[in-house]
Amino acid sequence: MTRLFVSALVACGLLGTATLAKAEDPIVLKMSHFLPSSHPSQTDFLEPWAKELEARAKGRVKVEIYSAGSAFGNVANQLDQVKAGVIDIAHGLSGIPRGRLPRTLIMDMPFLVKTADAASKTLWDLYADGDIAPEYEGLKVLALHAHNAGLIHTRDKPVSTMEDLAGLRLRTPSQAVSMMLEQLGATPVGMPPTEVYAALQKGVIDGNAFTYEAVHSFKLHEVLKHHLDAKAYTTTFFFVMNKRKYDSLPEDIRAVIDDMSGAPLVAKFGGWWTKWDEAGKTDIIAAGNTVTPLSDAERAKWREALAPMIDAYLTVAEEQGAENARAIYVKAQKLVEKYEGAGN
User: Fold this and answer.
1) Which domains can be identified in the chain, with CATH numbers?
2) Measured between alpha carbons, how far is 90 from 314 in angstroms, rounded to an integer?
3) How far apart are CA 88 and CA 130, in angstroms?
4) Closest by Cα among 99, 48, 74, 29 to 240
5) pTM of the predicted model, to two decimals?
6) pLDDT tens per residue across span 151-165
7) In what side-by-side order are the strands of the sheet with 27-33?
8) 76 CB-contact burial (10 Å; exposed 0-12 / middle 13-18 / buried 19+)
């Protein structure tokens, strides 16, 4: 009897030790994104965010980052993976796969916005006000953002007018940009950003719709010669967390995540993107490539040509479930004017 009692105490002691050790193990959060680990979105944004969370959680949280090329780095799978809890946090491209976030992607409309700062703050207001929130059910939204208005880059043929775009095969990041390029006479080609260099090199595409930042990040100045600074569109991104995982965290850790996310985080993207674009501009100058601003007269011509496309896109968004698409577009215009000023 005594022997059994002692054995029981030993067993309980071992169980208690194991339980204590388990309780002291850090909570592992898996974070994915679709870009190379060297990309500034990881080095300037995701890594510092993860390290701050780990520090403020006092070692009780460990963040593992999975970039492009990993099992969790496929841009088309990120939203599904974070919703399913396969990954805990994801930074992804809203436009891939198509048709998933029609309210959010209204921000991609041509000539709506020029700066990442205004675009990102507008997106966050639309989310906080509930206009686009239905698209993020089951998710803890940490940030929504967009880049500075993008360019049209070409390999061989310089572009300065709508007519120059006729027949060019251009990589596109979203349905809205695809419709814009098609309306202007080009042929849009969808593909992940990591595949663009090889596609240009092989002549599969003639150019792309990208930012200055992407020129640097993917070394595209090596395979492009001409850059039309059209400031014609933006592309939106999400930074989201599985809601069940968020709800399962201790209250104080949830408070830290809340403090590190939302409006204060969104406000950083304008400065980050301006910095990232400068690196691309430097590469383009060093390569001796040509940069052509879109003239005011040509911009007015594009705006007129794109009016039917904008109406058609909003109709598509309505068909995809965004019944308030036109109201969102009008509200986005007003918010951009608030953050950026008139004259866009």
Assistant:
1) 26-147+235-274 (3.40.190.170), 151-234+287-340 (3.40.190.170)
2) 27
3) 23
4) 29
5) 0.88
6) 999 999 999 999 999
7) 61-66, 27-33, 89-93, 236-242, 139-146
8) middle
